[in-house]
Specification:
Strand order of the largest sheet: 2-1-3-4
Order of helices and strands: EHEHEEHH
Structural class: alpha+beta
Helix content: 25-40%
Number of domains: 1
Largest sheet: 4 strands, mixed
Oligomer: single chain
Length: about 140
């Protein structure tokens, strides 16, 4: 997959209520339209997860793929919010916290996301106006 200089792909779990809410937020507030979304349950998302050494059937993280960089865990989340407008870009303050402290919190939420936030019976699909940004 060839991305242009500004594009980023967010690989997310479309069955997770929290992850789907995050995907909706990205689409709504990404005014520069730099983020494309791929569900790990879909063909493209599953392939990208596998290519990056992760099992799309047992997701443990979100991935953000930039031109030559793959971000995961709290780094991926921060890279998303840093690229949105105010107030979301204020999340960059958490870069001051070392990943060694951020990532365990991220992993706790990721591993318990279905129990805490719920799981959809079917994958979330964005409204028609955003479908062009879904891979």
């Amino acid at each position: 997959m060839q991305l242009n200089e500004n594009e980023r792909v967010v690989l997310f779990d479309a069955e997770c209520v929290l992850c789907s809410a995050n995907a909706k937020l990205i689409l709504k507030h990404d005014h520069r339209q730099i983020f494309l979304l791929a569900s790990m349950q879909g063909e493209v998302g599953a392939r990208l997860f596998t290519e990056n050494g992760l099992d799309p059937k047992n997701p443990s993280t979100i991935l953000v793929i930039e031109k030559n960089l793959v971000r995961k865990d709290s780094d991926a989340v921060l890279s998303i919010y840093e690229n949105l407008k105010f107030p979301f870009n204020l999340m960059r303050i958490f870069r001051l916290v070392p990943a060694a402290f951020r990532d365990p919190i991220y992993h706790f939420i990721a591993l318990n996301r279905y129990r805490i936030f719920g799981r959809r019976d079917t994958c979330w699909v964005p409204p028609e106006e955003y479908r062009s940004r879904l891979l």
